[in-house]
Amino acid sequence: MEITGFFTAIIIGLLIGALGRLVVPGKQRIPILLTMLIGIVAALLGTLVAEVLGVADTRGVDWIELALQVTFAAIGVSFVAGAYGRRR
Known about the structure:
Layout: H1 3-23, H2 32-53, H3 63-87
Helix pairs in contact: 1-2, 1-3, 2-3
């Protein structure tokens, strides 16, 4: 991953976190900053997995990479919301 890809993943990760939160049904009682952090991690992880699968560099929009990122974000939000909810 190049440095520009890293920074792009962070910026996109902020949006990915919000999308991941929208995909998960129900209300998630976690702070928005935590959601954004989950999105950044999910964007980086999705980009790495897309590179391993060989689908990171395609013409146009990288739909498979985006789907991987949103999926990881939804899983992360679900997991953290469950753990965060039990803590309270």
